[in-house]
Amino acid sequence: MTSLLILNGPNLNLLGTRQPEVYGATTLADIEAACTAHAKTRGISIAFAQTNHEGEMLDLIHAAKGTHKGIILNAGAYTHTSVALMDAIQSVEIPVIELHLSNIHAREAFRQKSFIAQVAVGQICGFGAIGYTLAIDAIIDHLGKKSAVGA
Ligand code: DQA
Predict the structure, then answer these.
(1) What are the residue numbers of the active site?
(2) Between vectors from CA 134 to CA 103 and to CA 97, what angle results, nearest 5°?
(3) Considering only CA atoms, which residue is closest to atom 9 of ligand 1?
(4) Tens digit of pLDDT for each residue in 27-60?
(5) Separation of alpha carbons 143 and 137, rounded Å
(6) DSSP 82-131
(7) Share of residues in the chain with pLDDT > 90 (%)
(8) pTM listed for this prediction
């Protein structure tokens, strides 16, 4: 069965209470439950993870090789700072969808720069928690196209 990794970075464990006017009232546990249910309807499995540590994110991305067919990545603030995350994604050659709850392009200038964007298949941002299930559908569609052309 196709498996995806949904990886969440720093401060996303605080969803629900963290700036709800920006990130919404949905908790990360709610999002995980919605993703698990949605994945089931799509006939795939997911692993859901959160860490506040950049190095642990790198380890999880490395470990995804051979285990997961795609990664949905909300790297939080590391999106805007981490060349190491960008290199890790490029190194494992697993398709990544970059995800943000908020519309990073409509926020502070420093959030409009993403190191992930240039190595991601695409980006979903600004739709809040529903972005996660949109990303699951987007990566399934992408993987289908890849196998159709034999890539
Ligand atoms: C975020 C956007 C980032 O700029 C911020 O640092 C986060 C959350 C989002 O989901 O909107 O932690 O990735």
Answers:
(1) 23, 100
(2) 70
(3) 100
(4) 999 999 999 999 999 999 999 999 999 999 999 9
(5) 10
(6) -HHHHHHHHHHT--EEEEESS-GGGS-GGGG--TTGGGSSEEEESSTTHH
(7) 95
(8) 0.95
If you take atom 12 of ligand 1, which residue's CA is the nearest one? 76
Q: Which helix (H) or strand (E) holds 31?
A: helix 28-41
CA of 77 to the centre of ligand 1 (A): 6
Q: Collapse the DSSP code of 5 into the 3-class scheme (helix H, G, I; strand E, B; otherwise coil) and give the result.
A: strand
Which residues are bridge partners to 133 per DSSP? none
pLDDT in tens, 130-149: 999 999 999 999 999 877 65
Give the model confidence (pLDDT) of 91-110 as tens digits.
Answer: 999 999 999 999 999 999 99
What angle is formed at CA 68 by the lines to CA 63 and CA 73, rounded to 5 degrees? 80
Query: In the chain, where are the structural domains located?
Result: 3-148
Which two tokens mark 11? 């401060």
The two tokens of residue 81 are 């700072």
Q: Give the residue-averaged pLDDT of 13-28.
A: 95
The architecture CATH gives domain 3-148: 3-Layer(aba) Sandwich (3.40)
